[in-house]
Amino acid sequence: MRKFVFLCVILLPGVLIAQKSTPEEEVQQTVREVFEVLSTKDTVALRKLCTTDVRFYEYGQVWPLDTLIKLAVTRNTASDFKRTNMLDFIRTTIRDDVAWATYNLHSSITRNGKQTEVYWQETVVLLRDKKKWKLNTLHSTRLNK
Fold this sequence. Notes:
Layout: H1 2-18, H2 23-39, H3 43-49, E1 50-58, E2 61-64, H4 65-74, E3 82-95, E4 98-111, E5 114-129, E6 132-143
Helix pairs in contact: 2-3
């Protein structure tokens, strides 16, 4: 029993340290959460994950958050709506309280009985606000697959 306790005391701190997220993983997690709350249509959580002046650069247009909510949430009334997102991060960089990440996004979207596969390559800028990363800019390029 003493050997077991000794091993726990020696090994447990290493296990706890190994589980801690890197700053890059924290940035990536925020981006994943943005897409998760978009998929669940949780506009309250979405607002908390974004800066108040966030901008989305989509299809040659510039959208504030309210426009994104209108187009992606409010107008999306299909009862069978389901969106699954897969993000493949290419690069994540942090400088002080600013981070930017580029990733490939593949979304599988079901709406009105029809499933669509959509691919984008995106770059986001996030700002650290009170130890939390918040989305400030998202630029999206739709890819043909």
